[in-house]
Amino acid sequence: MNKNIAVIILAAGKSTRMKSENPKVLHPICGRPMLEYVLDLVKSLKAKKIVAVLGFKHEEVRKHLGRGVTAVLQKRLLGTADAVNTALPALKGFKGTVLVLYADTPLLQKETVSKLLKYHIENDLDATLLTGQLEKPQGYGRILRDKYSSIRGIVEEKDADDFEKALKEINTGIICFNKEKLVKALKSVKPDNRKKEYYLTDTVKILYKKGCVVDALKLPDINEALGINTRAELAKANLNMQGRINGQIMKSGVSIVDPGSTFISWGVKIGTDTVIYPFTVIERDVKIGKHCAVGPFCHLREGTRLADDTLIGNFIEITRSSIGPKTIAKHFSYIGDTHVGKLVNIGAGTVVANFDGKNKHRTKISDGALVGSDTILIAPVTVGKGATTGAGSVVTRNVAAKVTVVGIPARILKKK
Q1: Are 207 and 270 in a shared domain?
Q2: Per 3-state DSSP, what percentage of the chain is helix, strand, and coil (rounded to 5)?
Q3: Which of 150, 161, 233, 293 has its CA 20 to 30 A from that of 277?
């Protein structure tokens, strides 16, 4: 397939229907801004040019673009055709296929887009749409076809009559264009619609009337092209992406007892033969070793590292901490900003008090230590190798190796 491809990503919109002060494209899906999924997809296509059209709070969005993406600013949000026009100067001198994508469509997969591009290029089309079929296509533009079933245009729902609203084939918004034909068609787009905006979809009707060849590829799973405009659609996309992530993790040799109640963020690494029990939340930047057990009702926050053969049980929260091999923490504990060695036993109700009201401090629990139930460790503090804290102890100073401490504040009971 000819790789002479440029991609325009439309990422200028506000979060109007979300009622949010944040840019829509930065709302997270499985712990990651939705825009970043689209950027991954585009970079996998190895396009010659990538242009992102920014608008609302563009300074914040720009930080997420990474290398190889040219950012342009749509100063007034006058519609999708205007956005594409804004991107065209960045494609000066480029000749080939222009693919238009949306930053709020994060579920689209590489295989689908590659198939669309291949169909467009191999058939030498002027425009190729990605369409879908919906029984209840509320909110989507409808595909209009002539008596020969050729695509003659797209009508947005707000501008559609009752007959057009009854059509089931919908526009996903994803379109490939011959760049030269796109440039000419954009010059004829007028804001003659209820929103008084310049619609990119109007280029389809313009190209059809000029005798250009417009075709479509139907998407088998319409969920891939789910555009996100509301909080409900964000939740639906999150659920869909979570299913993908959990599926990939299970394929890698990890057991997830109940994928429907297990929430794992994008980018989490889990070793083989580890078991994740229900109602467990694992955030970004977490790494879990082999042969571990995690949960149920466990929360692993960013910066958590679990070595091989660890057991992290019920109602435990861990953040910015490393847990050594064959260490056990089975019940009701909070472990924050802590390095825990190997073969440590963390008793039920243990709390690392890592925050003094101004700063967070580190704690170290050395190899072979036994932390008794309901121990509170006031950071910064170190529990020495093979040391023991008695049940209910409040540890305010370092505990030497092979020493047992008890009480409030903890004091030495005996040396081993």
Answers
A1: no
A2: 25, 30, 45
A3: 233
Domain boundary among 193, 225, 257: 225
CA distance 62 to 72: 10
CA proximity to 202, closest of 250, 154, 245, 161: 154
The pLDDT tens digits of the residues spanning 195-215 come to 788 999 999 999 999 999 999
Question: What is the reported pTM?
Answer: 0.91
Q: What is the CATH number of the domain that holds 139?
A: 3.90.550.10
* SS3 at position 19: coil
Q: What's the CA gap between 144 and 150, in Å, rounded?
A: 8
Whether 253 and 213 share a structural domain? no
Question: Are 391 and 352 in the same domain?
Answer: yes
Going by C-alpha positions, the residue among 196, 198, 177, 197 that lies closest to residue 187 is: 198
Give strand ranges (E) for 96-206.
Answer: 97-102, 127-133, 142-145, 151-155, 169-178
CA atoms of 134 and 168, how far apart (whole Å): 5
Distances in whole angstroms, Cα of residue 299 to Cα of each of 117, 250, 273, 282, 311:
42, 19, 20, 6, 13
With vertex at residue 390, the alpha carbon angle to CA 388 and CA 396, rounded to the nearest 5 degrees, is: 80
Asked whether the predicted pLDDT for residue 188 surpasses 90, the reply is yes
Give yes or no: residues 28 and 177 share one domain. Answer: yes
Helix count and strand count (H, E) for the chain? 8, 34
The enclosing domain of 301 has a CATH number of 2.160.10.10
> Alpha helix locations (H) across 276-387?
none
Joined tokens for residue 36: 């970043």
- Is residue 220's pLDDT more than 90? no
List active site positions.
Answer: 331
